[in-house]
């Protein structure tokens, strides 16, 4: 995953494609590896973080039926637009767990982050019947 920091966009896209392919073969392992990497590299520049989050979103969307609740919980955290997309994707299968985790971001007297609200809106749209 360190190769996501390569300045060449072609290399970045190859890393994204590789993560997606590996994620389709072993979704739980790849999602946990990506999560661990992002947590260990909390200062990772936004564009590089987005590559990993885009891969995670793709893995979740293509493997909703095979994910377990433990994996869903591991994928829940707060990182701007790309992370919001991951939460919405996980929420298509585990809406209650995602909502439970997202509600913890609300604190009395403090306005919630823009992307927390956006995530709620996108969850509602994606789970509307």
Automatic annotation (TrEMBL):
Top-rank taxon: Eukaryota
Gene Ontology CC: one annotated term: cytoplasm
Ranges for domain MROH2B-like N-terminal HEAT-repeats: 19-127
Short name of any one Pfam family annotated for the protein: HEAT_MROH2B_1st
PANTHER family: MAESTRO HEAT-LIKE REPEAT-CONTAINING PROTEIN FAMILY MEMBER 1 (PTHR23120:SF44), MAESTRO-RELATED HEAT DOMAIN-CONTAINING (PTHR23120)
Protein's name in the database: MROH1 protein
The organism of origin for this protein: Sakesphorus luctuosus
Gene name tied to this protein: Mroh1_1
């Amino acid at each position: 995953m360190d190769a996501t920091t390569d300045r060449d966009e072609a290399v970045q896209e190859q890393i994204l494609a590789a993560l997606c392919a590996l994620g389709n073969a072993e979704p739980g392992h790849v999602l946990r590896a990506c999560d661990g990497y992002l947590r260990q590299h909390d200062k990772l520049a936004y564009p590089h973080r987005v590559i990993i989050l885009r891969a995670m979103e793709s893995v979740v969307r293509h493997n909703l039926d095979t994910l377990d609740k433990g994996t869903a919980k591991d994928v829940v955290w707060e990182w701007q637009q790309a992370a919001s997309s991951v939460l919405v994707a996980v929420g298509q299968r585990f809406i209650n767990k995602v909502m439970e985790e997202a509600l913890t971001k609300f604190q009395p007297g403090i306005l919630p982050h823009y992307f927390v609200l956006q995530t709620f809106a996108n969850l509602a749209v994606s789970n509307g019947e």
